[in-house]
Amino acid sequence: xxxxxxxxxxxMGYGPETNADMGTPSAIYLLAFYSALGGFLFGYDTxxxxxxxxxxxxxFHLNAIWHEVIVSITIAAAWFSALxxxxxxxxxxxxxxxxxxxxxxxxxxxxxxVAPEKITLLIGRFAAGIAIGFASMSVPVYxxxxxxxxxxxxxxxxxxxxxTGGQTVSAIICGAFSNVxxxxxxxxxxxxxxxxxxxxxxxxLPESPRWLVSKGRIPEAVAVLxxxxxxxxxxxxxxxxxxxxxxxxxxxxGIGQVLRSHPVRRxxxxxxxxxxxxxxxxxxxVMYYSASIITMAGVTDxxxxxxxxxxxxxxxxLGTLVGLWLVERVGRRPLTLVxxxxxxxxxxxxGLSFHxxxxxxxxxxxxSTSSECSADTCGVCTSKSACGFCFMEHENSVYNxxxxxxxxxxxxxxxxxxxxxxxxxxxxxVVTFAYDWCPYKYAWVSVLGLSLYLLFFSPGMGPMPWxxxxxxxxxxxxxxxxxxxxxxxxxxxxxxxxTFLTLAEVFLKHGVFYFYMILAGLGFLLFFxxxxxxxxxxxxxxxxxxSGPLLxxxxxxxxxxxx
Length: 563
Known about the structure:
- The protein is mainly α.
- Helices cover 69% and strands 4% of the residues.
- The protein has 23 helices and 3 strands.
């Protein structure tokens, strides 16, 4: 053992007693920046599709099924590729998978940007999903494994900061190209630019030192650590600790070994629950209704609404900045619990605001000629997915209102006896067609609920599931478990996306918010008892957090308390 340590020190050039400048090398920040560009791609694509599809739907004359398929194919592809990325990163390394994600995203962006028809666009969306699945699984693992202990939380949260940054930039891009001919091509195609930047920068970055140690490539791991650790860091101890974590594990490192290990099995359950509740706590529902909430507040101009949506996305980005600042100050556990509790209360406020709007919604004054859209109030009318509320408004009074079919022509030409006029009048603001909302003078309550939701969600439940999952598994199981939990995230994302409209019809809009509020409350209780604090615990020691009794697992560990 002594001889092996002396050999290791000779490779490093110095031993643990060396005194040197302990400043954090700039290389680790470059590594974090170029890695987290994968998160930017993730955020940009998920953010840009809603704006782009408004224009794509008109140009390609898409029906509802094609619209849903083009949007959902990316989520399905990401689910599949996240599962594949686990064994791939174990076999080939973290770095090649991240590079592959960049290449595939560039290809997908080009295909989407030049797509002459819907089949080609679908192929481009599928390619983007493969890239997003690779990046969403491998980037957090890479960042966690490369980061020094005292910066691990912040650097891992950087990935989600870039996700929300990508969503903000995509909203701005959508606003900028909303009135440009075939502007959707620019919206989708420009996603390839950050992918090219990542590809160029990441080509010069090293492999994860922990993966190198797991493959017995100690000198290479040491060379990497020298670049990304302070000059006086005890590299001997770090390499020995990493080696020890792999020494007692058999060559079988797949799901079978994971399920046979009691601590890893516990950690995997927690990781899956974190990713599941991130999605079913209502984030997609809230973002889906952000435009409706803004419209309810009285903003009917499309361009203004798009720019206000960009402002909403920026709230999400700023909240993630708060999480970046707090993650190493208050820890992962408090951030997650407060975030989950806050989102639950915000969902209650949103549910109440939509409920009151439903109860007090305007009357339908002109009887419908269609039995499908027969309704006596706006709330009843807009609860039907095929109908919308058409009305004129003057001095906050609604008149000449009707419930119309909305599944073929959103702006229906009406007779002069009652009703909605043509699109010219609609654009002038004289007549309004409300597809999934009702005019409501207290809409500011909904806007406040939306803002509070994002402020609570973005620092905690946004980044923490990815951050914690990148930490809580031993090195031999990290890729496998992150692959599984990433797949849970994408599968639950797809489930929520596919069931939302059905739930909205069954429970009504306010009922959906109440439903997600109950799920958020359940998540809070589960995390209170299952989630330990990982701040200040080395990756090689975290397995011990899941080895003891349940009641000890949510208490802060001694070395985290004495930092």
